Amino acid sequence: MSAASSAAPQAPGSSRVWERFTPRQRLSRFAVYLGLVAAIVASARTVEVIPEFLYDAPQQVQDLLERMWPIAWHHYAGGVHDALVDTLHIATLGTLLAIVMALPVGLAAAGNLVPNRVVNHLARLVLVSSRSVNSLVWALLFVAVFGPGAIAGTLAIAFRSVGFVGKLVGEALEEADRGTIEALQAAGAPWASRLLWGYWPQIKPAFWSIALFRWDINVRESAVLGLVGAGGIGMALDTAMNLFQWDRVALVLFAIFAVVVIAELAVTHIRQRIL
User: Fold this and answer.
1) What is the pLDDT of residues 147-197, one digit of tens each?
2) What own/partner pairs with CB < 8 Å and gap ≥ 24 does 79-85 have?
3) How many whole angstroms separate alpha carbon 163 and alpha carbon 90?
4) Measured distance CA(211)–CA(208) in Å, rounded
5) pTM above 0.85, yes or no
6) Which of 85, 94, 119, 240 is the most buried (most CB within 10 A)?
């Protein structure tokens, strides 16, 4: 909240009028609000919302929920369990592979560890490229290369996670305290020793937090990669939807929700234990 105030020149003896915003601030706020309204209007015209579809949306939702109940619990053992395990495997292996690939790039992106501007910029370009492509797009690419299955999903999760892990690891390295590093350097310690005994103890809590947080995110993302053929429970969801088996769709959605909640609780518990 701005604390700026303005007061117009007043005649002697008259009261001063305090205003919350200056005229320039009021004009700026008006410009921002006008821009938001213009953006909303332009978006609404571009999306071309069909009013007829909105009018019967509540009835369609009610009908869909009625089709989903009762949930087909008997289908879990034969059609959901294996796909759910594959999803966890995709998320875990993808996260491990991402860490292996991201660590060298994160080290190269840290300017205090690798004092070479060209190498730093190239590493940051790799990290930005990884983050700029959505996991579903990575999955489509790897499905085209390796065919449908868990391999495509694992690689999609890994390549999507490289930018996240590498960027945060590089930032943690750049924020490390220089005191210990300079002491090791003055003692003649080589680069590897400075990295192992100077940087690693300082960034270890951040590293494990990054790894656990990314695994938690990957569990959620891997649940939908099957919609494009990249393995996991998303394929079971896609199959049930294509066959209009809404009671099985409800089972798959419940399984995804349960796994996401359990993963969140597990990550929170592990972080409290080791950090």
Assistant:
1) 888 888 899 999 988 888 888 888 888 887 777 777 877 777 777 777 778
2) 79/236, 79/248, 80/233, 80/236, 80/251, 80/252, 80/255, 83/226, 83/232, 83/233, 83/235, 83/236, 84/233, 84/255, 84/259
3) 18
4) 5
5) no
6) 94
